[in-house]
Amino acid sequence: MRDQFHQEIWRKSTYSNGDGDCVEVADGITGIIPVRDSKDPGGPILSFDANAWRAFVAGIQAGEFPISS
Known about the structure:
The chain has 69 residues and is an alpha+beta fold. It has 1 helix and 4 strands, in the order ββββα.
């Protein structure tokens, strides 16, 4: 599956703090959202159904996944 996404343009969240510890996503693939760790761009890629990804992001924005310290 990695070869399927090797030419995609990856982006970090605008909320990224710029220290390299970021999640990157590739846009423009119908129905799929590939996700990878910016620290390891050659590492594993997770791919999510686009609807599931949108629901996850909406949940984060709504505070459904509180971060504990």
